[in-house]
Amino acid sequence: MIYINLLIIFLIIVFIHELGHYLVARFFNAHVTDFSIGFGKPFYQFKDRNNTVWKIAPIPLGGYVKIKGLDSIFSKNSISESGSFQTLSLFKKICVLLAGSVFNIISAWFVLFIIFFFFGITTFLPIIGSVMENSAASINDLQKGDKIIEINQIKISDFQDIPMAIGSSSSINIIVERNNKFINKNFDLIFNKDLNKYIIGISSSEDFIIKKYNIYESLKNSLLFIPNYYISSINFLKKSYNENTLSNQLAGPIGIVKMADQMKLNKIKGVLLLFIVISLFVGLFNLLPIPLLDGGHIMYFIISRIFSNSLPEFVTRMYLVVGIAIISFLFIVVTFNDIFYK
User: Fold this and answer.
1) Domain spanning 123-211 has what CATH number?
2) Catalytic pick among 18, 81, 243, 313
3) What is the pLDDT of residues 106-133, one digit of tens each?
4) Pairing with 107, which of 180, 228, 240, 340 sits 20 to 30 Å away (CA)?
């Protein structure tokens, strides 16, 4: 069941990505000839009233939307008749190419909202669980069990409010409650080189509450999660690169399958979390300016427009060769890493 759930996740993500391309292309009156989930000879297909052939193919490693004229954009004999991709303006072409990734990111956000709304948001109370030695907190007699009421005139309702209240300040005014008495303190913070910021030096207690069915909190946390996820991922990759462990962190389809039993895919929350992570990755990866990816196509069309759509054939061929080389290299490296190191 775990591997079936994993396959379903892949197929849904592919479908959402291609659906984005399809809907925006149709919105701009471009004719979509094929919509395929999977590769190879389809075992099921039908044609709709817009003459789009919908296919389900046996190799579930991706999918594609075939827009009239898109397969000949790099040819001198490109199709420019009505309904073809070539007749679209640069803005519309970019919108069609962006749509797949945008749909992936929006779907990840929607599932995040559902998780936060129905499963709830775990919130730790603003109670000090421990105090670091030689920290600003210990030097200024903050103690385990103190409840933080206010920092820098900002009310603290849960523990995660503390960093936001401190911001980039190097000193704070803090009000804590201890033994039913309020204590007001002013003191300087100590700069932490690892975190590259000033910190108090405290951690939360194990006291928490779960907030369910809260639209505002669910919306706020789901919207904040996505940029924080991308920032954390980029910082992690930078750290792995600096420590020369980047290759060990890469995982492709084989690696994900090998780790599937650790992802709790037999539970709905595990399935949804993996859907979110892969959707956000696919959304960003496809926007990278690598030839043959959506981001690479966008870059190509922008450069082509700068040269009045008359790029030398040599440049177009190099674009295709470089794209194939980069994607093939990434596929080989990731697959090799999946097989021998995961």
Assistant:
1) 2.30.42.10
2) 18
3) 999 999 999 999 988 888 889 999 999 8
4) 240
